[in-house]
Amino acid sequence: MASSPRSFSILFFFFIFLIDPSISTRTSFIKLPGSVDGSRYCDSWRLAAETNNAGTWDVIPSVCVDSVADYLNGEQFLSDYNVIADYVIAFAKTVEISGDDKDVWIFDIDETLLTNIDYYKAHGYGSEPFDSNSYNEWVVQGTAPAFDASLRLYNALKKLGFTIILLTGRDEDQRSFTETNLRDVGYSGWERLLLRGPKDQGTSATNYKSEQRSKLIEEGFKIRGNTGDQWSDLLGFAVADRSFKVPNPMYYIA
Amino acid sequence: MASSPRSFSILFFFFIFLIDPSISTRTSFIKLPGSVDGSRYCDSWRLAAETNNAGTWDVIPSVCVDSVADYLNGEQFLSDYNVIADYVIAFAKTVEISGDDKDVWIFDIDETLLTNIDYYKAHGYGSEPFDSNSYNEWVVQGTAPAFDASLRLYNALKKLGFTIILLTGRDEDQRSFTETNLRDVGYSGWERLLLRGPKDQGTSATNYKSEQRSKLIEEGFKIRGNTGDQWSDLLGFAVADRSFKVPNPMYYIA
């Protein structure tokens, strides 16, 4: 459906700029309204984070550790992800697949296809500052489970005929661990796995992922959909026809 | 801070395209997952709606009327709005006001400054198809209350030195009722109230509001922030440096 010029005009006329990194403020230290109890405030904070109203944040509010843990380990998170997956599939079914293998669906990996909750559980559910060393030790173990809902979604989109491209902020030297982890938990049949190479270091996630999407469009791919847990998976340029944000109240990547 | 060329480059490089109206699907008839109870599903539906994952929808799911009513009449909605207002104010305080009265904050009116919950309460909380006749009868009464949080936010932004511009989908012939209603509940000191004129009829909300913002920029205004309950208040072109989505689970305007 969308030719490149059409995509461009759509991209130009329908966009949103929720975050300007140059002027965004750190609001993770926002004060609790006195009249609001912790759980209520934390539910509001999660909504603010999911809608990007909270802007850039470093760690989850310390008062919300239990609330975030309860949410992630309970039924609500599963329901939230499943309802989004249903909306994705409902949209995907309306897309006319051209049959030239150029209709792409992009997936992010961490907190989108794979869950690192076992790592974060041991690190305060996002309340501790990110430690790349210990996180990378976790990643190379290759034991991150799939979300049931994302596996269901992934397979449904594959069956509908989309070309699946995985676009992650993980580094190129984590390719083999990542591929093995993905296959071990049931993912298969992706067209490409795009990881950060040496040239991509130091680029913001929004720019890096936008550049990668842009290259795909230059190659003739039509990016029909995109699914990620971060706004930086979805924002930027060369965005998909529809983008879907899956919940992640543990960390924010700009 | 943001000159026009800078705004343009920011706008070009940081945007999102969550909704393509030409290909969006009506997903308000999405099936309930069998294993999920009504309240849990409805909380998930609200999250999907607030994050724009649900795309365009006509009426709230009939199973969610009680859940939406409970949410709107309870403490969580107040908390959600207050937490967003705190994030808005935290961001607004970082904006350097130039002193030339050109630093604009845009507010939508319905479900942003004024609440029409009394109308929707009598019409199924968004579960009945929208009836413009009965809704307009309500609007001309001019009795819509303010949200406490929005009044607090409005006054805080005014005090910080922003030029307040009200941009609404209401029609020009509702100007006097609207002004009176706003003043009656405590709003004052806006620079302009922009309503839909005869030429704006038939234009989507996203395009209409984008065009109005574009004209403001041409006049030399710098749109520092924008607050609305609809994605169509915030999406499009000529968007603000930061946009904030306040919750509204009752209706969706494309």
Automatic annotation (TrEMBL), chains A, B:
InterPro entries: Acid_phosphat_B-like, Acid_phosphatase_pln, APS1/VSP, HAD-like_sf, HAD_sf. It comes from the Eukaryota. Keywords: Glycoprotein, Signal, Storage protein. SUPFAM superfamilies: HAD-like. It holds the Pfam family Acid_phosphat_B. Transmembrane segments: none annotated. Residues 1-24 form the signal peptide. May function as somatic storage protein during early seedling development. Belongs to the APS1/VSP family. PANTHER family: ACID PHOSPHATASE-LIKE PROTEIN. This is Acid phosphatase 1-like. It comes from Camelina sativa. The gene is LOC104717273.
